[in-house]
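fyi for ur records
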Amino acid sequence: MAKNTITLNNGVEMPALGLGVFQTAPDATTAAVQEALRVGYRHIDTAAAYGNEREVGEGIRRSGLARDEVFVETKIWISDYGYDDTLHAFDKSAGKLGVEQLDLLLLHQALPADFDRTLDAYRALEKLLADGKVRAIGVSNFMPEHLDRLLKETSVVPAVNQIEVHPYFQQTELQRVNAQNGIVTQAWSPIGGITSYRGGNKSTFDDPTLLDIARSHGRSAAQVMLRWHLQQGRSAIPKSTKSARITENFDVVDFELTTEQLAAIDALDTGVRGGPEPDSITLEAFGREIPEA
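which gave:
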């Protein structure tokens, strides 16, 4: 069976499955987080740019769980890159979440057009790690060339690289680079939600191969996709605001995909990215002010 936790490269244990809240409206976020924690999730992923950190914090408080029982992950937006700005961005996020320490803090994008600013931001994460304000640091949407430069010019290897991974877009070369460097691949849009809401002509939820495998286990296509991630050693952060779906997505530990089924899912890769091209991320196009706590 796939483990329910993943040990990061600095020894920190991270629950492999978390609840994502990307594009979850603030007024729906608190209830979704509270429900996920009631069901058994112990890992919540948010980001400064999602505009719902405050509501995530409220959901955690309402759960009644002790702070150390919930793994809290958030991301610094590109508008707050730069050493001092990134240190302040931690204060903004921690303030909204209502926590003193974050479990995992990521840089949200590589900002290739101004990579020196990205490096300064990462050095701020290293400082926060050294000071005990975060337990682990990492990156998101970093491509091999971004990682290569980061590893050459900074001292702490990222614990996580959160990237788009689902059966239709697997980034196998990037996953290989992550693994070679001891970086955990964490999948955003892990069940291919982006293939539905971005108006693609093919949705993972209707895929005949996935539905066939799902039928053989008495499961849903979504459960099969999450099982595929866990069995291949990835972390996954499916998002939902529906109670039944939140529960279903968490119920993926008591069945096992066969080697043939894993290979059949691997074969679904189309190479078509759903999210923005990492090299297209610029402050001009994507910059936005992140409010104070």
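The mean pLDDT is 96. thats all i got for now
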